[in-house]
Structure formats: structure tokens, C-alpha cells
Amino acid sequence: MTVDAVARATWIRPHEDVVAAPGQRPAYELRAEFTMVDVPDAATLRVTAHGLVEVFLNGDRVGEDELVPGFTAYRKRLQVFSYDVAGLLRPGVNRVEALLSDGWFRGRHGFERRADGYGDETALLLAIEAGPVRFVTDGAWHSRPSGITRADLMDGQAVDFRLGDVDRPWQPVDIASGGLYDDRDRLVEASAVRVRRIETLAPAGVTQPREGTVVIDAGRNINGWLRIDDLGARDTRLTLTHGEVLDADGLVSTENLRAFVFSTGERLPAGQIDEVISAGVAGDVFEPRHTTHGFRYAQIDGVPSGWDASSVRAIVVHSELRPIGDFACSDTRLDALHELARQSFLGNACEIPTDCPQRERSGFTGDWQVFVDSAALLYDVEAFSTKWLDDLAADQWHDGRVPTVIPNPAGDRPSGIVFEDLSAGSAGWGDAAVLVPWALWRHYGDLEALRRRLPSMWEWVDYASRAAAGSRHPDRAASRPEAAPHEEFLWDSGFHFGEWLEPGVPPRPDPSADHSIVATAFLHRSARLLAASAAVVGDAELEAWAQRIADGARNAWRAEFIVGPGRVSIESQANYARGLAFELFDHDESPLAAARLAGVIADADGHLGTGFLSTGQLLPALADHGRVDTAYATLLSTGVPSWLGMLEHGATTAWEWWDAIADDGSVRGSLNHYSKAAVVSFLYTHVAGIRLDEVPDAASAAYGRVRIAPLPGGGLTWARASVDTPRGVIRSEWRLDEGMFALEAEVPEGTAATIELPDGANDEVGPGIHSFTCPWSE
């Protein structure tokens, strides 16, 4: 195995006389030499690190991966990367060099940007197998600070090219042992989808708002960095500030990206600042590969007179995911919305599914469970998600709670940070332990993968059900001293984010808030899907246990919150959409609930009123229950809050807040949060009509069975979508012409499809290309 090859290698640390402050630490060079008589046909280099590492063999960079060894639950899972290096070796002396920086291991990370999350040392482990030669990291290596004088994923990177002219002495490395270093069982073969430089963008615009300052517009919000070929004369110092918006003077503003310390309210700088000092050497290129930034605009200060910005390029960096989905229609605004969703995801698909690529860059569980089904229509996210779920299981607390972010620097236990520990186990976030594996089952159908997830899924539902049964909300206890029987399954205690960022509802991260209408719904949903998962793998005992909780939570939700046919006591778009999506209303109540949901939307002048958790559920909840017209009207509404309203304000990625950019130009929050872009799934599943079973068995999963049921509306005259599924391409393409609806559907081998036409006709078809028509009128 790959990890066995590094068994003889020794963990080594760069010698640090003084450890600089977080965000100000240099990258270190480590090097050694070995001799070969002959170069074999096959040679493999294996490497991992505490920190980020780039490896060079005889001056050539090894591989094309960025941010190696990736971000995992380092205490239990550390990836070892392997590379074929036979073409880089030569007879005689061979030189191995490594650049090592803090990365996620020791660098600043998360909303509060705390450092040293996994340790206060960086370290390297490397081995080369080349025929009879076995070369490893050991005490013969040497180290020194590199020309990268500052390297941090959040704060940015600084490079002084003049240091190439300075004789900087090498010192012996320090041998690292004890603690994590001695635990070789945590070394795993790299399973991550590799992070790469995906695209190079010429500036969409260049301005010079003041003397010595140039502002680059990348044309869209991206994750990555700038590359600069022209660094100017020796001693030229360029400072690069990255952000999403410009202020009134045309300068980059990062005010919307500044976080704060929860305990004190202290505002933190936004970071995302790179620096480069020129040595005046032709051919020197600045490309900061030990950091990433979320940005559309980059402000370059210190540019000399006459400096040519044509050398600047924006480099798009993210996990190299395979695109599988395509959508287009007669309304170009929806095409733009589809692209906005795609770019939002790619900007947040850098090694892990992040919430935003600038302010915290954390793997928030709630965000990924909200978006994973949409992502699976756009890209192949099976391996990407599987690796993240391995980290979730590793960092899940012993009582079943799931931390809010995965990987979690505190690991599988409390961190001692009050808010961080308080928020672990929030409904809708911790439910990712169940909802993400279930989404992967639906889209990819890997039975053994689902089976491997069952312990983590069970632990979460067990925790949530015990939390529901174990305590009551004080207000409920005061108004009803004796608990009703259904309260065994009413989850009304503990901290929950709730719907989070509903328009006009100030966020209330407060454990005293009663979010039971949200939490109990999610308890039902996760328990129901755990029961379905147990049924798929043949665990009847677990299925019965989980189904009892699912039924109990549904009854509790209904007893506590339904106040009339299709009516809930706490009326909101989110509560109605969730109730319909999770089947909390009885069959005869659902049309009434959908009608009331339409009424609540009308009360908001046709605008959206959902937050993080239910935005993706809103339109299907309407369309699936007889309110197609309202679904389209909401999809195509403009102004604030709306999806098209973001586009009207120039958005290229989805916003954290619906009103992130106000009419007066003021900005708040991240402009690249994909949760609200989950609407993109509606374009595939309802506009084009490609639908998986909600609860598929082994034969139906992974598009073994599919419905193709387009729902025309919204003034569209045509639409098409395709998804490259594990069984092949499924395509739906329809057109309206002179009172007729015409559909062409492509079904791959191994798939059975039910075709449903707008007039109610349906047909069962197998593989092939099929055409259908029926009368149509608005």
C-alpha cells in the first residue's frame, strides 16, 4: 500500500529559532540529496505533511496538485500523495527540495481565524522508491526559511525575490516524534479529488483609481490567486488586496468579509493580502500557491509608473471535478442563474465543500447537506463527498453530535470555545451525517458506501432523539407543566441555528430560542432516511428503531404545530416548504398547505422568504402540489429578495444574505455562499423534468429508474437538460409550438423511465431516444 512505503521515513521539522506570529510565518525550504547509479523505469515519490507542501526533484516541481496533502481530520486521517517521478531522476546526485507552510494544520482558519488548530509545528514525511534505492526523510535533511516570507491560507502570502541573492545558511532539520508523529495508523492513501489550477482568466477590466494603484476585475467571483509576470525593477514592492466589491472610489473593499470574535465582538481584519518584492530579474513570476482567496477584484498597490497590467492573470483554483450536468432554456436569465449556481459551487469546492472561499473557508455541514443534491446534478461529487464524510465520521463526537464544521480543528470532542461547542449538534447542520450519505445513495447507488455510513448516521439520530426526549424548552414547560406524550419526540431544547438568515428575521444564535418547528422536522427526516437506508442494506432491527423515531417526530410536529387543515401555527415560507418536502402534512392536507404557502408568498409581494435550510425546497414544494404557476412566478420574481434580484445587482455567485448589496451600494456578508443557489436543482428536476426516486431501492438508485416529467411555465418556450449519470446520459428536451408540447427524451442502457406529459399522459420506456407530443395551453 502507499502508506506502507513511508514506514521507514522519519518525520522531520524545519528548524525554527523563533516561531513567528500566526499569519506572519514563512514557508520553509527543506532539502537533501541522494545518489543513483542507474535510473529505473519506475520510481514513486510519496509525501505528506503537517501543513502544505510542494516538492521539487532536481529543480522540477513534482505533480500538478495544489494544497497538498489536503484538509482532513488530521488526528485520525492524513493523506499520503503518490507521484511517478522516474522522468525527473538522473544518474548521479539527485536533489530533493520541499516548500512547507502552515496550511490548515497550523495556519489561521475559520470564522474567528484561530491558528494552531492541529498543532504548533509543521513537519514533512517523504519517501522515494526507485528500484533498489529507498530514499526517505531523516536527520540528513537541512532546512532554512524560504523566500516566501509569509504564508497563510487566510491572511495571504508574501514573497521577497531578493532573498535569492542572499546566502541564507542551512541548518539540520529537527526530528519529530511523539504524539501524532508516532501514529502511523492515521496515514491513508489520498482519496481527495485533486485541487488544481483549473482556468486562467485575463482581466475583464483594469482601472487606475489613484497614482500607484491598479485594480484588476477578474470578471466573476472566483477562488484562487493572481499571477504576475512583470514584477518591476528591483525593490519594487507590490501589495495585492483581494475582495468582492469596490468602494465609491473604485478601490477594493473587504469590509463585508470581516468576521468577529463571538465572545468579545472584536472585528477581525479580512486578510487576503499578498505581497511581492522584486529582485529585478527577468523571468521571476509571482504566483502564491500557499494561499487562496475568494475575490472578483484585486487591488495592486505600489505599481511603478508605466507598469503594464497585461501580465496579470487570475488563476481559478478548485477541486478538479468532472462536469456532468447541462441546462439551457428560452429565458437567458435562467441560464445566467444556472451559471451563477455553478460558479458558486466551484468557488466553494476547494478540497472540501466550504461555506465561502474568503471569510472562513470552513466545511459547514448545513451548507453541504443543503446543496449536495444540486451539486450532484452539476458535477460528479461522489469521491469529493465520500472523503468529506470520512472526516465527518472521524470528527463526530462520542455522544453522536456532529460539529458545525468538518474537518473540525477540535476533532471529536469539545474545543473549549463556548460558541463552537454550543453550536455542535444543531438541527439541519448535524443532519448532514444522514442527508449527505442518502444523497450519494440516490445519485450513485453504492450499497457498500451506504452500509459504511450507517454507524455515523445512527449515532446522529440517536443523539438527536435523546436530546428531544431528555429536556423541554422552559417556555413550553411553563405553559404546559405536564409534558404531553408526543413531547418524547419534540426537539425543543439545545442550540439550533434555525432556518438562518430569513429575510427580515435577525439571526439569533441563542440557545434560549425555540427552534423546535425546525429541529423536530429534521429529526423526522433523518430518522426516516436512516430507516430507509437500513431497509436497503437489510438491517430490519435498525429500520424498525429508526422508523419509530421518524413516526414519533412526525406526530410531535403535527401535534405541536398544525392548527388547521394545511395550516401551521408559525407561518413562514420555510415552515410550509419544509413541511411539504418532508411529508409532514397528510396527503389530503398537502394541497391546502401548498395553497397557504402560495398565500404567504403573495403576502410578501411574490418575493422569497426562506433562509439557508429551505430555499432549495420551496419551488418543488409548490410545483409538486399543484402550484406550478406560483413556483415559476417566484423563480422569475425580481427585486429583493429574489434570485434574479442578485443577477440584477451584478452577482456572478450566490449571496449569503438576500439583500447583500443594497440599492445604495452598501454590502454585507459573503457574496459567494452556495446554499441559496440550491434552486438550480429545480431547473433539472422540474423545468426539464429529470427526477430520481426520493426513496429508491437498490434497483432504482443511481438512475436505475427515473421520471422525466417536465413542467412548462413561466413563459418558457423551450428547455433542455442532460445529466451524465453512472448509467449514461439522460436528456430531456421540450418545446412549445402552436399549441403543442413536444418532448424528446434520451434514456441510457440500464435505466427504466416513466415519461409524464403535461396533459397527464404517461408511458414506460427503456433505453433509447423517445419522442412525445400532447396539446398545450397556458
From TrEMBL:
Keyword Hydrolase tagged: yes
Gene3D superfamilies hit by this protein: 1.50.10.10, Galactose-binding domain-like (2.60.120.260), Maltose phosphorylase, domain 3 (2.60.420.10)
Domain Bacterial alpha-L-rhamnosidase N-terminal: 41-164
Superkingdom, taxonomy of origin: Bacteria
Limits of the Alpha-L-rhamnosidase six-hairpin glycosidase domain: 324-687
Every Alpha-L-rhamnosidase C-terminal domain range: 700-766
Catalytic reactions on record: Hydrolysis of terminal non-reducing alpha-L-rhamnose residues in alpha-L-rhamnosides
Alphabetical list of InterPro entries matching this protein: 6-hairpin_glycosidase_sf, 6hp_glycosidase-like_sf, Alpha_rhamnosid, Bac_rhamnosid6H, Bac_rhamnosid_C, Bac_rhamnosid_N, Rhamnosid_concanavalin
Keywords: Hydrolase
The name this protein goes by in its record: alpha-L-rhamnosidase
